[in-house]
Amino acid sequence: MTTRELQEYWRNEKGCRKPVKLLFEIASARIEERRVSKFVMYQIVVIQTGSFDSNKAILERRYSDFQALQKNLLKTFREEIEDVAFPKKHLVGNFTQEMISERKLAFKEYLSQLYAIRCVRRSREFLDFLTRPELKEAFGCLRAGQYTKALDILVHMMPLQEKLTRHCPLVLVPVLCAVLVCHRELERPLEAFAAGERALERLQAREGHRYYGPLLDAMIRLAYTLGKDFVSLQERLEDSQLRKPTYRGFTLKELAVREYLC
Fold first, then answer.
1. Which run of H or of E encompasses 62?
2. Distance between CA atoms of 211 and 254, rounded to whole angstroms?
3. Among 27, 94, 23, which residue's Cα sits nearest to residue 61?
4. Rounded CA separation 217/24 (Å)
5. pLDDT tens figures, 49-96
6. What is the pTM of this model?
7. Could you tell me which of 196, 202, 207 has the C-alpha nearest to residue 247?
8. Which of 36, 124, 211, 254 lies in disulfide reach of 250, CB 3.0 to 4.6 Å?
């Protein structure tokens, strides 16, 4: 490959793989009082920069959630985050407007600095902080048969999870499969099939993945119901089982309800 061809190649690569940049805002804060506790709940807004983002994520976390994130990150990334300031907890004055306003700015800066560190923003700890509480609730609703509520949460969280995991598309597969299950249970086969297609795109040829066989099986049934080509999907599943017989009879729903149990 000539120097010119190499330069052209890298220009094309840059154009195809534009990094997703996220902006973190602490939009508001509210004091919540329960029977035995009182705390401040911070509303985090996550927006993709560079273009209009119609899928901004809105989530809420309290001080103890931020504190748990810091503790978990220190176990693995102590050197990487040594210059990232974490707002300290005070014995008194935590509920004054002055302190809450100060913390809002501090947490905005904290999340922005963490996101700027590549290994941190790609870490399980950072991803879990931003998505796990909502996804745990969604999968809990799925287990309880509350498919509409589960679907609402999953659809709300998917854009954020997708932005955070461009480097690892497989992370989104369980959520997409859960969306398929919810739509199917709500008798929306077309929407279920669309979610399944997105999941298959991410799995590609990873035949050993635990979702590969059950997903193909579910897609075969949906394709048959919708009058689509199910034969090619069936052949794909059969070929996969001949090469790597790892499908142990779990249905897609049985796999989905095992996610986020703890």
1. strand 57-62
2. 11
3. 27
4. 40
5. 877 777 899 999 999 999 999 999 999 999 999 999 999 887 777 889
6. 0.87
7. 207
8. 254
